[in-house]
Amino acid sequence: MYEVVLTTDRTMMSNHHGKEFLGFLATGPAIKIPEKIWFWLASPPVKVDELGRPREAPYGIRKVEAILVDAGFKAAIIDPDHLYKHLGTMQVLLLGHHDYFAYGPPSSEWWSITGKEPINRVSFKKLMESPAVRKAREKGVRIIAGGPGAWQWLWELDLWRKWGVNTVIEGEVERVIVDLVEKALNKEDLPAYIYVGPHDSPSIDEIPVIKGASVNGLVEIMRGCPRGCRFCSVTNKPLRFIPISKIIEEVRVNVRNGVTGAILHSEDVLLYGGEGVKPRPEPLKKLHEAVTKEIGEKGSLAWSHVSLSAVKYAEEEYGLVGDLMENYVLTGERRYIGVEVGIETGSPELAKKIMYAKSAPYPPEKWPEVVEDAFSIMHENSIIPAATLILGLPEETSEDLVKTVELLDRLKPYRSVIIPMFFVPMGALKNREWFLRDHIKPEHIDVLLKCFYHTLHWAEEIMKKYYMKEFHMFPARLLLRLFMWLVKREVERVVSRLEYRLKQ
Amino acid sequence: MISVLKHIEGDAINIVVAYRGKLGERGLKELVALSRRAAASTRKYRIVLHVFSDRDNLEYLEDLRPFILNNVVFSISIRSYELSREAFAKLLKLLEKSRYRAYVLLQRDLEDLAKDVSTRNLELHII
C-alpha cells in the first residue's frame, strides 16, 4: 500500500488500443456518437494488477514515480478506477496531465468550434469529483498537480480551490519533487505555485530510468529543441541527449512488462546526436540499431516528432531517411512509421517572424519548398506524417493564410493527415491573446476546409492499407469509419449552407 | 517558520508583496521592474514571491498571472499569507535573518506595516 499515489484521468491512463493516434479523439467532444462509446474508442481502460497499478502509464508520470521510488518513498502510479484501494495509506496524491482543462491544442479548437466540452476535460473533472478523490481530500491528503498542462490551473482558480489542490508545479520537476513531496508528507506549508525555469532543469544524470512500462512504449531520447520557435514551450529548455544505454534500459523495462513497441520521443527525433540543427547519420543509426534489436521485427516503432527541415537535410545530404527506414524500421510486420510534424504556416513572411529557425539550415524564405520536399521524401519512404498548422498566430495576415492554402494544394499528392489548430499562447508568446471561433476570417475557413478534405481523403487510404489492420481492431475501425462518414456529411451540410448564404 | 524548498527557493530573490483589493497595473509593473532589477544585480534566477493579500483564497493568482506568463527565464515559487501585521512581521523577521537581500513591495495604504521593515537587508518600495 502506498503513501504517495500518482494518477491521472482515463483519457491519459490508456494505451488507446495500442494506437497512439486514437488518443487524439479524447481532445474533442463526443460528436454524433454516445459519450461512452467515444470514451471506449479514444481511451479504453488499461490492464492493472491487484493493487490497481497499471501495466502502462503516461511516461511523464512514470518519470516522477521513478524519482520518488529511488528516493525511498512508498510511491506508485495507480489507475484512476482503483484509487479507493489506497485511501487507508495515501497521504499525498500527485496528478499529471498534458491538458487538464482542454485549453491546449487541439482541444481548445474543437471546444471553440463545437461549443461542447472535450472529453479530456469531462474526464478529468469526473476524476476530481470521484468518491475516491473526494474522500482523500476529506481525510487531508495533500494534492499536487504537475505536468505539461499545469499552466491551465491558473485559469481555473475556482476548481483549484474547490478541489483543494495544494500546489501546482510547472516545468521539469526532477530536482524539486522529492523535497516537495517530503514537505507535503510532513504537513509543512507548501507554495501554491511553482515554475521550474531552465536554470533548474535536471542534467542527464538526474533524469531517472522509468520503473514500469510507458504508454505504447514511449521513451525519451532527448529534451529541449534548438529551433527557438516563439509559440513553443519546449524550446525554453536546454538541449540534452539521453545516452543510448539509458534509452535501451527503458525499452527493456517496457519489453519486460509486455510492451514490445517503442515510440522514440523528442521534439525532433532526427536531431538526436545532431550538430545544432543538422542531423548526423552515426548517432541516429546507432540508436535505431539498438532499439530495433530490443523490440525485434514485430514490435511497432514510431517517432514522436520530426522537423521537416531535418527530414529534407538528412535525406538530401546523406540519404539517411531512406537508410533508416530500409535498414532498421521497415520489416514484414512494420510497414510504415507514424510521426507528428509541424507545418504551422505556408507563409515565409510569418515563418520569419515566429519560427525563424524552423526551416534551418535552409532560410525561412524557402519554408514552403522545405515542407513540400519533406512530404515527398516521407511519402516515398512509408512515413505517415500527422501535420499541424496554427491558425491565428500573432501578426498573421490574410496574405499569410492565402499562402498556407497554396501550400496545402501542393501537398495534395502526399499521404498525410493535416490538423489545423487554433493558436494557444505558449512559449515566448504565452502572454498573447487566444485565438477563438469569433476571430475566424473567410481565409481561415478556406484553410480549415482544405485540411479537412485532405485528411479525409488520406485517412481512408491509410486505414485501408496501413492502420488498424489487426483483426481485434475491427470494431474500432468500424466506429472510426462511421465517425468519418458522419463528420463528412455534417461538414458538407455546413459548407452548402455557407455557399448559399454567400450567393445571397 | 517557512520550510524552504532547497532546490527552488534556496539562493533565491525573495520579494514580499502586500496589498489590499487588487494589485493593479501599477503594482504589477513595479513588481516586474523590481524582479528584473533584483535579478540583474544579484545574478540569481530564482524568485520567491511572498504574497500578503486580503483577496479570497487563490484570487491573488489572478493578479499575478501576467507576471507568471511574462516569465520564461526565472524559477518562481509563490507563497501566500493572511494579510495581518503579525504574519507580516513574522515573515520579515525570518527574511532578515537570512543572508540574502529581500525586497518588500507595499501598497501605500498599508504603509503602517513598513514600521516593521528594517533597512538592514530589506529594501522597501511603496506602490
Description of the structure:
The complex is a heterodimer of chains A (504) and B (127). Chain A is α/β, with parallel strands linked by helices and 504 residues long. Chain A has 16 helices and 16 strands. Chain A folds into 3 domains: 4-200, no CATH class; 231-466, pyruvate-formate lyase- activating enzyme; 468-504. Helix content of chain A is 39%, strand content 13%. In chain A, α14 (398-410) links the parallel β15 and β16. With 127 residues, chain B is α/β, with parallel strands linked by helices. Helix content of chain B is 36%, strand content 26%. In chain B, α2 (24-42) links the parallel β1 (13-19) and β2 (46-53). The radius of gyration of chain B is 13 Å and the shape is globular. The chains are: A alpha/beta (504), B alpha/beta (127).
In short:
Chain A has 16 helices and 16 strands. By secondary structure, chain A is of the alpha/beta class. Chain A is globular.
Search tags:
heterodimer, A: 504 residues, alpha/beta, pyruvate-formate lyase- activating enzyme, 3 domains, six-stranded parallel β-sheet, three-stranded parallel β-sheet, 16 strands, 13% strand, B: 127 residues, Rossmann fold, 4 helices
Beta-strand residue fraction of chain A: 5-15%
- Estimated structural class of chain A: alpha/beta
SS elements, strand count of chain B: 5
Large-scale geometry of chain A: globular
Low-confidence stretches of chain A: none
CATH architecture of chain B: 3-Layer(aba) Sandwich
| CATH class group of the largest domain in chain A | Alpha Beta
Helix content of chain A: 25-40%
* CATH C-level of chain B: Alpha Beta
Largest sheet of chain A: 6 strands, parallel
Number of helices of chain B: 4
Give the number of domains of chain A: 3
Structural class of chain B: alpha/beta
CATH topology of the largest domain in chain A, anyone? pyruvate-formate lyase- activating enzyme
Low-pLDDT runs of 5+ residues of chain B are none
Number of domains of chain B: 1
Superfamily at the CATH H level of the largest domain in chain A? Answer: tm_1862 like domain
